[in-house]
Description:
By secondary structure, the protein is an all-alpha fold. It folds into two domains: about 1-60; about 60-95. The chain has three helices and no strands. It is elongated.
Amino acid sequence: MFGIGGGEFVALILLALLLIGPDKLPQFSVDSARFIRKVRDLAQGATKDLRENLGPGYEDLKVTDLHPKKFLTKHINKVLAEPAAEIAELKKSAKIDPDLL
């Protein structure tokens, strides 16, 4: 979970108990969960709006696809896939009969 091990998680809980106090910790946890939920909903709403505004062809859009390197790689692979399929088909049909040699 988030790259945190068991010992680190326990240390974070103890640190939270010391800084916040045991009496305020339950309310702090509730407020933190509510904040995380709002941020997640905001991010999902932004992604949904982006998909709607981009139009057809982007229904499977992921936020990670917007990274320039991944975006270019995805589109370059799509463009290169068509000639590769044609070349593979030509290789199958262009077999030389060994008896003719």
